[in-house]
Predict the structure.
Amino acid sequence: MTAAGAPAGGAEIQFFVKAGAERTGTPFSVKVAGSDGAFRAELPPGSYHVVARKTAREGGRDRVYKGEFSRNPLIVGAGKTATGVDIALAEMSSSGFTPREGTGVVGIVLSGGKPVREATVYAYSADAGTVRGPSYVAFARTDGRGRYMLPLREGSFVIVARRKGNENETGAIRPEGESGGEGERVDLSAGKMKEIGAIALHHPKEGKRRIRVEAGGQEVQGSMLLGRVVRNDGSAGAGVYVMAYADQRMIGRPFAISGRTGADGVFLLVLPKPGKYYLGARSERGGPVSPGEWVGTFDAAPDHSVEVARGERKEGLNIRVAEKW
């Protein structure tokens, strides 16, 4: 049982009796993984759908990780022991991305030729149009030797590494942070764990870093949305992030996010590729909405959406936020 490449101690493993193609009702059995991520369950012969979840406090907020056994249903024979029931948990904000057992990349992160502990390694889909911002599909952190294992699935990805200068994997790099450049493309087939060698970190140029901070960690290129966040009394919505989602439900991690609005409530949202996006705004970057938080949506369209062409710049967008209690 792993989450972000590390043992998922305390994860809850649920065994559902298979019913058609879906798991239904109350689980037949529930077990809790030990500190090393291992678990053991005694089950009668049968067919089971195995899923797991864990809630962990990280970066000042609760993160929910979920996963399921990649070879569901699990068949338990009479007098037999099923081994290798490994489950890679993915953060729920990862837009439904589920790693496949035994598939991913491994490597090392260096700075000045020395291993970097607690660097963050990201995988972006090769067609995401960017290697910055929150549109990554998975991430892992390096250990004390600078090594990492990033579980993925079959497909094409671009791998980058960063030491942001804080404990949170989201947001722009701080002045003391380092970046791993534009990334390396990897093409994975199911069951393939690929060694990609060393990623060397370097300090970004301060001018470019500041531009990315203002654009929510993105490069200022491609399509852009500009507008203003206002509170329900008409005053400027300061201290708010504007988020673009590819999913109309606007759940999970956004595809792109603006920098925090200033005293005038003005925002700049950079979109690395054209398309239809659903816009929301809130004063926190993630986690459940908390009392006192400012939250709202773009209401000029009934579904809160806006469409942008490649390189298009749309201005005059207004988003109204209200304080939640």
The mean pLDDT is 82. Residues 230 and 320 are 5 Å apart (CA to CA).
